Amino acid sequence: MLTVDYDQLGLRPGMTVLDLGCGEGRHAFEAYRRGGRVVAVDWGRHEVETTKRWLGAIAEAGEAPEGARYEVVRGDLLHLPFPDASVDRVMASEVLEHIPDDATAMREIFRVLKPGGRAVVTVPRYGPERVCWALSDEYHANEGGHIRIYRGDVLRARLSSAGLVPGRSHHAHALHAPFWWLKCAVGVDRDSALVRAYHRLLVWDLTTRPLVTRLAEKVLDPLFGKSFVVYADKPAGAASTGLSAEVFGVVGQRERSTATG
């Protein structure tokens, strides 16, 4: 399930792209298949190992084009282990709502981007997320949970404060909003026949991508798509605080896993 539109991100083969807070790698996988030189970053050891394993499987299956590369790094998004102006694209999907100091994370995105580079940030959309918070504390009030809900204009303003220039935006995953409302209503950790039935629908949609659900989401996303997605550029004339450098191989002594596809 992809939240990012790679065409709007402008990802082209050979570009270096960071996937920040990669989770289990869903966006890194697609960037790698498109020929990117992908660096996936997460703090969780399980997430790093899972992403490494699946990227390796993609490489072994020959699903990535010649020249694509990947690296998986365990790192802190507030202190990214990469040089200034070293990457072409940055993806930060469903991660900033977890970070207390989101301003520093945004400044780090600006710092590592090359002038003229582009970032994409996705966060839970204000309306659907507010419903979840109203229905259940379990949904967000836990270790590592969501600590804020962004309004679209607020997220744009914070990205601008970090030096980025927000541009196009869209919404995604309208069919997932009612699923989470149901889970919050019955209890996030409780079993429910209705929740199980809706989950089967989402799995069917994910695995078969039928036209009916694609059309439904296209119509419903602007109304209550669960994710808000914004693309933001680093101005071409932006000054860097240090020298530009190659991102691969500069992680130093930080814990990492590497491979070449």
From TrEMBL:
- Superkingdom is Bacteria
Pfam families assigned: Methyltransf_11 (PF08241)
**InterPro entries the record matches:** Erg6_SMT_methyltransf, Methyltransf_11, SAM-dependent_MTases_sf
Q: Which residues form a coiled coil?
A: none
Entry keywords, A to Z: Methyltransferase, Transferase
Quote the Gene3D superfamilies the UniProt record gives: Vaccinia Virus protein VP39
- Gene Ontology molecular function: any one: S-adenosylmethionine-dependent methyltransferase activity
The UniProt entry, under CDD domains, shows: AdoMet_MTases
Specify the protein name: Methyltransferase family protein
A Gene Ontology biological process annotation? methylation
| Ranges for domain Methyltransferase type | 18-120
Record bears the keyword Acyltransferase:
no
